[in-house]
Structure formats: structure tokens, C-alpha cells
What we know:
There is one protein chain. This protein is mostly helical. The protein has helices at about 5-30, 35-70, 75-80, 80-100, 130-165, 165-175, 180-225, 235-250, 255-260, 260-285, 305-310, 315, and strands at about 105-115, 115-125, 290-295, 300-305, 325-330. Helix 1 runs antiparallel to helix 8 and helix 2 crosses helix 3 (about 75-80). The two termini are about 40 Å apart. Residues about 165-180 and about 285-330 have low confidence and may be disordered.
Amino acid sequence: VTPTNCYLVSLAVADLIVLLAAGLPNISDVIAFWIYGYTGCLCITYLQYLGINVSSCSITAFTIERYIAICHSIKAQFLCTVSRAKRIIAAVWIFTSLYCTMWFFLVDTDETVYTNGVVVTCGYRVSRSLYMPIYFLDFTLFYVIPLIVATVLYGLIGKILFMSPLPSQLMDRAGGVSVHQGLSHSTNKSSKGTVTTRKQITKMLAVVVILFALLWMPYRTLVVVNSFIDPPYHNTWFLLFCRMCIYTNSAINPIIYNLMSQKFRVAFKKLCRCNRQHREAEYNAPIYYSVMKNSSHGSNEPVTEQEELSGQTQNRLNMKEDDDSMLSIS
């Protein structure tokens, strides 16, 4: 378990919440009727914003963790720990959970009476103009600031990883020769492996951040633009495009991990084979064979431990209780 993995678990849970909460209203859109009632309207809206905001905070958290681990390796020994990561994740979830409680008071169900029936929808409780400060606060805290932080920190990380020379390169340039050349070569090889692993992880996380920025941009932009124009822009195809981007962002991360992380592929294969290997182990127990020589009566007939365990040895050997001359060959 690593701090980065802890943040990725938090991100995965948040993405699942977004997929669930953003997918349920589609059923109501198909039948043109809100089927989840007043409680469903409140909870679904709350979970949508909770998942979105936790995703943003988790991305910011593992970006800062990567920056400290790579650019300040000495501080990372006591700052980038699993216990600290768990505390940060707990703080993120508590903060966003409290922050999103305002949506319990901002949405409500609305009934529209027609001649042929009543249509129930889930919408805003007050006029749309009053939501502008909330939208801008949400846009700034959970989109603009995380992207600025990620851009700056990944720029510094890239400068360290991809532009700074490796320790082995510095040795070669200096022309220094160590007495312990074998140890030096092993250390340089280990250092190269560490840098390569860090580059791989950093590239993967950078792709996650870039896709987060691109896939959330249409929806975030639409919300900001609709805060200024009247009537709001509600093109059906563009709204569908925004939804598809949101779903893609929440579902694409495992694909990125599989494409860019060898450790993820290995762990995923082990997870898939775990149950099958467990079932095979129940029926296949290892059997060890050892050939033994009977010297009590001068017999050279070999005896196996498998026969000894099954009691077949008694029929072949008439050993005395004090006979200790049995010789193990294997």
C-alpha cells in the first residue's frame, strides 16, 4: 500500500458515486417523469456534487504527494506516508460532505399540472440568478484551483525527472572511478530503475489530470455561461455530449492504469486468477517422495514416504523398534 494508491482508491469511489448519481436521472428523462420522489431529488443532487468535488480534491492531493515525493525526497520520508494519506483522504471526504449539504436546501421537486395529468420534475428551489455565486465558488474551488496547482506542480516534477541528469550520468561526466565498482554499478542501476518507475507513475497521473480537465470543461463552461445568459443554452445534443464526457471521465481511469502501469496489469491478472488458483489448491495437495533403504533384513527394496504415510510399509518391512539403521537417500 502506497500513499498514491490510497488517493487513487478515493478517486475510484468518487467516480463510482458520480456514475451512479448521474446515471439514475437518465431513467426519469426517458419516461419524462421524476420517479425518485422528493428524497431522491435531494440525495441524487447531493451525491452528484459530492462525487465531483471529491474527485477534484483527490486529484489535487495525489499531485501534491507526487511533487513532494520527487522534488523533496527527504521531506517525503515523513510527509508522504500511508497514515498521513488516510488522514488527508478522511479530511477531504468530511470537508466535501459538509460543503455539499447546501444542496439539500437548494433543490426541490416541482409539479406541473396538465390537462392529461401531472408531471413531476427535480429542479432548483429558487430563481436561477441566485445560484451564480454558488456556481462560481464551486467552479473556482474544484476546477480552476486544482488545474492551476496541477499545472505548476507537474511542470516542476517534469523538470526534475526529465531534464535533470541521472546520478550515473553525473558520475560519467566527472570521470570518477570508485574502488567498489560493483557496488557503485548496482546502486546506479537501482537509481535508474527508481527514476524509471517514478516517470511511469508521473506520466500516468498527469494523463488522469489532463483528461479530468478536458472532459469536465464542457459542463463547467456551460454552467458558467448559463449563469450570464437568459434564456440558458439547453441544446439537447450539447447536453448529451456533456453527459457523455462526465461518464467517460468517471469510467476511463482503470483503462489508463491498464495501459500505462505494468504493476496494475500484474495485480489485475492476479486478482482475476485468485479464485481459480484457490479452488485448484483445495484439490491438489503437494506430495513429496523420498526413497528409503531397508537394512534390517538386508533388503535393498526401496520404500517411498507416500507408502509409509498410507500404512503400506508394514507389509513390506518387518522393522524392529530399536532399529535405527534406516538410511535416507533423498
